[in-house]
From TrEMBL:
PANTHER family linked: ANION TRANSPORTER ATPASE-RELATED, ARSENICAL PUMP-DRIVING ATPASE ARSENITE-TRANSLOCATING ATPASE
Domain ArsA/GET3 Anion-transporting ATPase-like: 18-285
Protein name: Arsenite efflux ATP-binding protein ArsA
Keywords: ATP-binding, Nucleotide-binding
């Protein structure tokens, strides 16, 4: 098997043609840390005005950047040296509200905000997070305040759901029931009034299952749907096309673990199918052996010999630790090779495992240095 091509992440984030970097991968592989470290280095070492957007609700990003909290508004990271870095966390409900406010009057917006169907949809409707991630990314791009936007996506395969957002939104907006509700509202008769005027078994069944009030809420919401969200599908599709542009770079983040590598292969293939510009794989938490010439078997044999001779036990302990590390590295190498076999043409960068979690800017700088020097 050929050795994978090296991924030069430093050149990637330094390139003025790179406007958006999207980090995706399964949960628990260091995706948030990778995004923050790249954003910090782009700001400090390359002088780029950078913002990092996390969609993962974890609090660790704010803590490592020295911020008390993150919200839907970009916050300046104060201790950045010779650069400009902002950070934010997606609030999908607030972003949804911003969409409404930007396309209606204040009075119309207040009416929509008070609608129970809107309240449920904006907070829990399937796919809302991905829709709003697309919208927020579009907003950040439109502001033109930053040279580089780094996006930290949700864990697991839902991280790529935003690729489906335009099509899923179109299906929702063009759904037969929703179009019926909208057209009936335009005609002066809500779907609710049409249905309740009938004493049919169907009407009674519908009212019994979901309630007349719910139908009324949906019909009222549908009446304002076109004016409020008519342009959202267009913007979502435009953002999708922007993600396919060469100014965007996708990084698949993984760890040398079976599930993470399997997910990384899935992400890679999906991005390739969607013709997204995949920059490469970042393999976090990789271990190495300082004394690579000493095998695990020889180290264990030497430890047993020392113990049999009654020698200092600490030396034997070190040898046993070395043997375990050699075995771990061998296992990680075999697991990582599965990705290389499945995706041989994808460049890779490896980040060593750190003794402790990342807690502050110094730790993030260390991660960035390790990332570019491997």
């Amino acid at each position: 098997m050929k050795k994978p091509q090296h991924l030069d992440t430093d050149a990637l984030i330094a390139d003025p043609q790179t406007k958006v970097v999207v980090c995706c991968g399964s949960g628990g592989v260091g995706k948030t840390t990778t995004a923050a470290a790249l954003a910090l280095r782009a700001a400090e070492k390359h002088g780029r005005r950078t913002v990092v957007l996390t969609i993962d609700p974890a609090k660790r990003l704010a803590q490592s950047l020295g911020l008390a909290e993150l919200d839907n508004t970009p916050r300046r990271v104060e201790k950045v040296v010779d650069g400009s870095l902002d950070a934010m966390m997606l609030d999908m409900k607030r972003t949804f509200d911003e969409v409404v406010l930007s396309h209606t009057t204040r009075e119309q917006a207040e009416e929509i905000f008070a609608n129970p169907f809107y309240q449920a949809m904006s907070g829990t409707f399937a796919g809302t997070q991905e829709y709003m991630a697309m919208e927020k990314l579009a907003q950040l791009r439109a502001e033109d305040r930053w040279d580089l936007i780094v996006v930290d996506t949700p864990p697991s395969r839902s991280a790529l759901d935003f690729l489906d957002a335009p099509a899923r939104l179109a299906r929702f907006l063009d759904g037969r029931m929703l179009r019926l509700l909208t057209s009936s509202s335009r005609g002066g008769h809500s779907m609710f009034s049409l249905m309740t005027s009938s004493m049919s078994f169907f009407t009674r069944a519908i009212n019994k299952v979901i309630g007349g009030r719910m139908l009324s809420d949906i019909a009222t919401f549908a009446a304002s749907l076109d004016s409020t969200f008519g342009g959202f599908r267009t913007r979502a599709e435009a953002t999708f096309r922007a993600l396919q542009d060469q100014q965007t770079a996708f990084l698949v983040v993984a760890a040398p673990e079976p599930d993470a590598i399997r997910e990384a292969v899935y992400f890679t293939r999906r991005l390739t199918e969607e013709r997204m510009p995949l920059a490469g794989l970042v393999l976090n938490r990789s271990h190495s052996v300082p004394a690579s010439g000493l095998s695990a078997q020889r180290a264990l044999g030497a430890a047993e010999g020392l113990e049999a001779d009654g020698s200092v036990s600490s030396t034997a302990d070190v040898l046993r630790i070395h043997a375990r590390l050699v075995s771990q590295v061998a296992t990680e190498t075999r697991i990582a090779a599965r990705y290389t076999a499945a995706c041989p043409d994808v460049p890779q960068a490896r980040v060593p495992a750190f003794a402790a979690d990342v807690h502050d800017l110094e730790d993030l700088r260390a991660v960035a240095e390790a990332l570019i020097n491997r």
